[in-house]
Specification:
Blueprint (H helix, E strand, L loop, with lengths): L1 E9 L10 E10 L2 E10 L8 H7 L3 H4 L5 H12 L3 E4 L2 H14 L9 E3 H8 L7 H8 L11 H16 L37 H12 L9
Parallel strand pairs: 1-4, 4-5
Antiparallel strand pairs: 1-2, 2-3
Helix pairs in contact: 5-7, 6-7
């Protein structure tokens, strides 16, 4: 099964108020195994960068000014995700922005099936924090490089979180060099003690009693 773990960065919280995508990061999985195939692009949003958004991802208006516009990267992006199930943290947010960008170009919305890892985490850990940093801490995933949000880095971290949520990564089943051979169990060896067989033969008294009993039997068959 081919899946694409996807993340975006934007100028704000909703495309309905004119906010745009500024970065897309994608990482390919086949049967839950990363293939090394990635898609990453910065995008000129054709508008200013609000301070609140800049504080989240650190992408400035001047940095993005000479980058390609969404219409210029749309074909490559669609080709990368074609036919794949999309794995997204809070899928409604990213899908809303991507479909808004496609709508501006008079193109069809994405028809890919999606997996929302926020919902997965909330079902598995009710009441616990479900943001990416909290899940990295829960699963012992190193997110020290995540000083600010970045689409590709977040997609890479999310891929690890997704594998943990699905049970796809099972370290207990992996063999190291030391584990490649079965463990030798030392058993305590004890000396076998020779015992003389018990005497089960009848005593003199038992033989005499048996003979006296037989004399009382009338016409026994062994005398026929």
């Amino acid at each position: 099964m081919r899946e694409v773990v996807l993340d975006t960065e934007t100028t704000g919280l909703t495309p309905k108020t004119g906010h745009r995508i500024v970065e897309i990061g994608c990482l390919e999985l086949v049967n839950l195994v990363p293939t090394g195939n990635v898609y990453h692009v910065y995008i000129n949003p054709e508008r200013d960068m609000p301070e609140e958004a800049f504080n989240v991802h650190g992408l400035s208006e001047s940095f993005l000014r000479d980058k390609q516009k969404f219409e210029e990267i749309a074909e490559d992006f669609l080709e990368f995700v074609e036919g794949a199930q999309l794995v997204i943290h809070n899928a409604e947010f990213d899908m809303g922005f991507l479909n808004a960008e496609l709508k501006r170009l008079h193109r069809a919305e994405l028809g890919n099936e999606t997996v929302d890892t926020v919902r997965m985490a909330r079902q598995k850990f009710p009441g616990a924090h479900a943001n990416l940093d909290a899940l990295c801490r829960r699963f012992g995933i190193d997110n020290s490089a995540r000083e600010k949000h970045g689409a590709l880095l977040d997609a890479e971290l999310l891929a690890e979180v997704y594998l943990e949520l699905t049970g796809g990564r099972q370290p207990g089943l992996l063999l190291s060099e030391d584990d490649s051979k079965p463990e030798t169990i030392d058993l305590e060896v004890t000396e076998k003690t020779e015992r003389k067989p018990r005497d089960h033969s009848a005593s003199t008294e038992e033989l005499e009693a048996h003979a006296a009993f037989l004399e009382k039997v009338d016409d026994p068959i062994w005398r026929s």
